[in-house]
Amino acid sequence: MAKVAFLGLGVMGYPMAGHLKAAGHEVTVYNRTAAKAGAWTAQHGGASAATPAEAAAGQDFVMACVGNDDDLRAVCIGADGAIPAMAEGSVFVDHTTVSAKVTRVMYAAAADRGVGFVVAPVSGGQAGADNAQLGIMCGGDQAVYDRAEPIMEVYAKACRRLGDSGSGQLTKMVNQICIAGIVQGLSEGLHFAEKAGLDIRDVVDVISQGAAGSWQMSNRYETMADDKYDFGFAVDWMRKDLSICLQTADENGTSLPVVALVDQFYKDVQKLGGGRWDTSSLIKRLRHAG
């Protein structure tokens, strides 16, 4: 079993760290809000630390799942950041969805310290984290990935190295691009069914068995029908991810018209006060428009 630090105990990180502890690893957690770390240790045992550096010192692996580029910089190389405190030969695994630019900076900072760095954004939402069924899209040196893979497999349904450091983030962008169109299409279909006087549950029971079926349909249609969105991956975070996709598309010459449109639809949801709603709340925008 390994000595592991986990930085960031949000809706994803909290259960991911819990799975590591349940698997027998020695886990130390850090969270910007100390009360959350205290709640985690009360539930799972293990230890908590006051700073990323304190959590990372002496660990074999440091895992991070925070919010955005600035959050990652802070826990990695900010005041009391983790990377300067890590021992040579240890490994940092970043599960945050961030820009390729900040990934390159963190990779270089780790390399200067003699620390391995694996970029490993995840997909599967809160349910995937709770049930240890995440898809993990990795980039980094093969030898470093090989060392980290058994740790990540504790909460993974699928874990794969796609190439060098930037490959994991690029693959996560593909994931978000696909989801954006699927959720909008599902929202329009269910809204159409409502307007046509059909029973959404009966409709989905039939069409989910054919070509229209998707993970989003199976896992979100009931809550969408009930107008409930207080769970899962938040609109604010999806807009952050889509902005990364659109920026990267500008850099590599890709056309993403659907993503650009859906990003603006999510902006409309934010204006309705839904920044923390689940991404399936796109249907709320349609209902609000009538």
Molecular structure report:
- This protein has 2 domains: 3-164, NAD(P)-binding Rossmann-like Domain (Rossmann fold, 3-Layer(aba) Sandwich), CATH 3.40.50; 170-289, N-(1-d-carboxylethyl)-l-norvaline Dehydrogenase, domain 2 (Orthogonal Bundle), CATH 1.10.1040.10.
- 53% of the residues lie in helices and 14% in strands.
- It contains 13 helices and 9 strands.
- The strands form 2 sheets. Strands 3-2-1-4-5-6 form a 6-stranded parallel beta sheet, with helices on both faces. It has a 3-stranded mixed beta sheet with strand order 7-8-9.
- It is globular, with a radius of gyration of 20 Å.
- The mean pLDDT is 96.
CATH superfamily of the largest domain: NAD(P)-binding Rossmann-like Domain
What is the correct CATH architecture of the largest domain?
3-Layer(aba) Sandwich
Q: Which CATH top level class of the largest domain fits?
A: Alpha Beta
Mean pLDDT: 96
Strand order of the largest sheet: 3-2-1-4-5-6
DSSP helix fraction: 40-55%
Spans of at least 5 consecutive residues whose pLDDT stays below 50 are none
**Number of alpha- plus pi-helical segments:** 13
Distance between the termini: 56 Å
Find the structural class using helix and strand composition: alpha/beta
Largest beta-sheet details:
6 strands, parallel
Number of strands: 9
Q: Beta-strand level of the residues, as a percent range? A: 5-15%
Number of individual domains: 2
